[in-house]
Amino acid sequence: MSTFRSTFRHPGTVVTDHVFTVPLDHSRPDGDTIEVFAREVVAATRQDADLPWLLFLQGGPGMAAPRPVGRQAWLDRALDDYRVLLLDQRGTGLSSPITARSLASLGPASAQADYLACFRADSIVADAELIRRELAGGAPWSVLGQSFGGFCAVTYLSRHPEGLREVMITGGLPGLESCADDWYRLTYPVVAERTAGHYRRYPGDADLVRRIAIHLATNDEWLPDGSPLTLEAFQSIGTMLGQSDGSHRLHYLLENPFDADGDLSDAFLAGLYPRISFAAAPLYAVLHEACLANEGKATRWAAGRIRSEYPGFDGREALASGSPVLFTGEMIYHWMVTRDPALAPLREAAELLAERGDWPPLYDPARLAANQVPVAAAIYYHDMYVPRRLSVRTAAAIGGLRSWITSAYEHDGLRTSGGTILDRLIAMNRGEV
Prior knowledge:
CATH architecture of the largest domain: 3-Layer(aba) Sandwich
Number of domains: 2
Structural class: alpha/beta
Largest sheet: 9 strands, mixed
CATH superfamily of the largest domain: Alpha/Beta hydrolase fold, catalytic domain
Low-confidence stretches: none
Radius of gyration: 22 Å
Number of helices: 19
Number of strands: 9
Helix content: 25-40%
CATH topology of the largest domain: Rossmann fold
Shape: globular
Order of helices and strands: EEEEHEHHHEHEHHHHHHHHHHHEHEHH
Strand order of the largest sheet: 1-2-3-5-4-6-7-8-9
Oligomer: single chain
Distance between the termini: 40 Å
Mean pLDDT: 95
């Protein structure tokens, strides 16, 4: 059941907000329900046209859909052909939110963990199918998945291909049978290469990062929310290096870190804070590794376990040996849920999820091999977040999928390329390129 909320106009677009009531657990349709929010966007000149739907699945997990003003970025190209639905995946944005307070009302950590387990790609796809039947009158629709949204799109192909007219994926082809351990064994070396590349681009940053690391190893520093800024937390801002302009923004962030007394300046700490805190997206931290989990395999804080296989990432060892201090990337560590005030109330539930070994499979290799839905995927050669090796293997395993491997863009290519990448994927599905 849906509720119409409001319609308003932006430059060149008409925007309509929808709220849908869906089961919390789709295997128990008569049980508890939650709300899922979605925003419909259509070109102002085509408001009444009979356009095909394009569902956009955002990266994450735990991130809300974009809040565009007018025909921004890839949306400008999409609106030429589609009526676009920007989905706030369950637990994000204006969908029933997940916060420490809302989870506390559920009772013990075991109940909280069971609740959180209903927020992976399989549940997101089941939500989308209910919404499709209501909005599109049962007609299949197109899906565009960015990053984690691409993972969801592959789950969609595995479970409900009948609901899909075509699929476009950017930087989001997952490993079909890989586990979180495999994922990090492929991404740690890429992050090390990115750190080295940053130091080649900005040679002075290697010494500056070393000075900051020495300071953090020998002094107490605190972020604006009162949580400790440790050396490990500082290293985690390396996730910026996977973005098209991330190295440059990191350089500017680092350029003046100390105040006149030799402590880290308030401005520098304020700049670090949104890169380290999960206050804006707690679900991302709690479910990140669960979204990499395959059937019967507990993740057990894989990022931390696998990091021990790459001693170069030990900041204190780097200081002792004189080696460059390496940044880390899109990795979630156990210390994050103990030190971040936004995550600390979720610690017990997060630990239960990390030990959970009964995850249902997200992908059906046999069904994907027999796929007949047109699928086009952009694979970014230098992707720091989604291992190219796994993406190429998955592309070959999905029947009829056409892949475009490019080094011209980073993981955020969909956003930074304007409509270029989306235009190519549309053309690929139409057999025009």
